[in-house]
Amino acid sequence: MNRVVITGYGIVSPIGNDKETFLNHLKEGKHGIGPIKQFDASETGITVAAEVKEFPLEKYFVKKDTKRMEKYSLFAIYAALEALEMSQIDTQKEDMERFGVMIGSGIGGLGTIQDQVLRMDQKGANRVSPMFVPLAITNMAAGNVALRVGAKGICTSTVTACASGTHSIGEAYRNIKHGYSDVILAGGAESCINKIGIAGFAALTALSDSKDPARASIPFDTDRNGFVMGEGAGVIVLESLEHAEQRGATILGEIVGYGATCDAYHMTAPDPNGEGAARAIRAAVEEARIQPEDVNYVNAHGTSTQANDKAESKAIEQALSKNAYVSSTKSLTGHLLGGAGGIEAVASLLALENQFIPPTANINEVDPEIQANIVVNDAIETEVNYAVSTSLGFGGHNAVICMKRWEA
């Protein structure tokens, strides 16, 4: 079996599109939530979202690319190229048939679907864009990344709602662990801040209707009332330890365990006892060959909904030591849906690298029913050797990865 290490990462996020900005905002607990600017959201009853700011399109793209790819694909490519640059992999020297891409998305090109359905309704079926399908389908973040870098190995897109990014990383880890690939770009991407995306989740009463950006995404707080839609992408470079050492790579961290389970309980609600999520956490820890008390940090799914946060706290309490620090970086980034696992894997890696626990920001009072050890408002500097990142998706999907601090 191969050990699987991380040698690079890239992010597009509401709190920064580069390592320094993203890391500083994590440490400072500075959120990226504000009034929705991408469309007039007044009819939806929702006023805030966590939008990507100042996306540096010109770094890797030309204007034509925006017509041929949906925004979530652009985000994925940007994050993947940033990750490759950090890893210093020379694709000209790689066996690209053993170089894969596994990038998930929960919904894909929802903006294109919205716009083209309206176009068809208003102008007729023969006016639908010939680019409709390539723009809309959910696998095209992975496909477009593979096209851009020339990856000819495994190329898949896991679609498990909000667990998509973490499932993609976990499956990439297993693929390399068992020797099928040398290198995989893994993570998630999403961009659904549009009228149908906001309206759809609002109809489910899943979104926060707070008008105050600082009190909208407040995981584990007594007054939480729904999540804040975010957007962006997080992609990491995974490779076998042998491959990384042979090319003299700088190793940033290691993936040591992965758990994937299903609640089989409800279409959108988690099992209130947290049983399925707890099994996924235990599976990741067992594969890592560590004890529950060895986990120092849990980057929780922590959506800021009443049901999720209670159930997830119970899962963490069942599976891990009560001393494990827990926080939700969705208080800063909002909820990136299928992209959440990618961004949160990077946040967990940075916690390991920099020996700190990111805070759950803007909390007034932790719900007394939540007994997990929630880190509130201020980052904590402490020893972090193992971190767990959890993602729980509609449909009962649970995905958990366990990461280890790298020590040469």
TrEMBL record:
Keyword check for Acyltransferase: yes
GO cellular component: cytosol
SUPFAM superfamilies: Thiolase-like
Acyltransferase as UniProt keyword: yes
Cross-referenced SMART domains: PKS_KS
InterPro entries: 3-oxoacyl-ACP_synth-2, Beta-ketoacyl_synthase, Ketoacyl_synth_AS, Ketoacyl_synth_C, Ketoacyl_synth_N, PKS_Beta-ketoAc_synthase_dom, Thiolase-like
Pathway(s) the chain acts in: Lipid metabolism; fatty acid biosynthesis
Keywords: Acyltransferase, Fatty acid biosynthesis, Fatty acid metabolism, Lipid biosynthesis, Lipid metabolism, Transferase
Catalytic activity: (9Z)-hexadecenoyl-[ACP] + malonyl-[ACP] + H(+) = 3-oxo-(11Z)-octadecenoyl-[ACP] + holo-[ACP] + CO2; a fatty acyl-[ACP] + malonyl-[ACP] + H(+) = a 3-oxoacyl-[ACP] + holo-[ACP] + CO2
Pfam family, one: Ketoacyl-synt_C
EC number: 2.3.1.179
Any one GO biological process: fatty acid elongation
Ketosynthase family 3 (KS3) domain span: 1-405
Catalytic residue list: C162
GO terms of molecular function: 3-oxoacyl-[acyl-carrier-protein] synthase activity
Family annotation (PANTHER family): 3-OXOACYL-[ACYL-CARRIER-PROTEIN] SYNTHASE, MITOCHONDRIAL, POLYKETIDE SYNTHASE-RELATED
Primary role: Involved in the type II fatty acid elongation cycle. Catalyzes the elongation of a wide range of acyl-ACP by the addition of two carbons from malonyl-ACP to an acyl acceptor. Can efficiently catalyze the conversion of palmitoleoyl-ACP (cis-hexadec-9-enoyl-ACP) to cis-vaccenoyl-ACP (cis-octadec-11-enoyl-ACP), an essential step in the thermal regulation of fatty acid composition.
Entry similarity comment: Belongs to the thiolase-like superfamily. Beta-ketoacyl-ACP synthases family.
Name of this chain's protein: 3-oxoacyl-[acyl-carrier-protein] synthase 2
Lineage summary: Bacteria, Bacillati, Bacillota, Bacilli, Lactobacillales
Designated gene of the protein: fabF
